[in-house]
Amino acid sequence: MTDLEPTDTVFVDVDTQVDFVEPDGALYVPGAERLKPAFARLVAIARAHARPVVASSDAHPEDDPEFATFPPHCLAGTPGQRRVAETEPARARVIAADGTDRGGEGQTIVLEKVAFDLFTNPAAEATLAASGARTAIVFGVALDYCVRAAALGLAARGYETVLVRDATAPVTAEGGARVEEELRAAGVRFASTDEIAAAFA
């Protein structure tokens, strides 16, 4: 990652929420809790270098149609919807799933959503554009669902998209392998947390 320009980056934190990351979460991604040190390190890099963090967050209503396919999870306002301690910002601006700006301030902007793709939030494109970044560093869960959608969406919108491999995990190994091939074909690059840290050193 020697060609990564730190001042040209936005960190995209995909759904690092309790219900996905913690083993007792409502829709736990296998092994996701082991990613927490990498999550913490990436957020610390962003904060130390004053780079924006755009964080997607499932915020489902109790009667969400998605619950016909998946168990209820990340219900808006519940403990399971919160980010894990490693990525929870002290302050954040929150934009609801319908694009309504709920206010707040800070280095992190939370984009709530009720679908896999963070770009279903009407404010997503403008929020990312306002960062001034041309490179998006992506991490979070799950690789074969919401991370896939975020990375493909960013690449399709012209961002140099870098997925941090040791800071993501799939629901299934087979699904993860298929998605990695799909992302590579879309021009997404892969890096490790160590490589990102070295680029910012």
Account of the protein in words:
By secondary structure, the protein is an alpha/beta fold. It has a single domain, classed as Isochorismatase-like (Rossmann fold). Helices cover 29% and strands 21% of the residues. It is built from six helices and seven strands; from the N terminus they run βααβββαβαβαβα. Strands 3-4-2-1-5-6-7 form a seven-stranded parallel beta sheet, sandwiched between helices. Strand 5, helix 4 and strand 6 form a beta-alpha-beta unit. Helix 2 runs parallel beside helix 6 and helix 4 runs parallel beside helix 5. The longest helix has 14 residues.
What's the layout of helices and strands?
Layout: E1 9-14, H1 18-21, H2 36-48, E2 53-58, E3 92-95, E4 108-113, H3 124-130, E5 135-141, H4 143-156, E6 160-169, H5 173-185, E7 189-191, H6 193-200
Parallel strand pairs: 1-2, 1-5, 2-4, 3-4, 5-6, 6-7
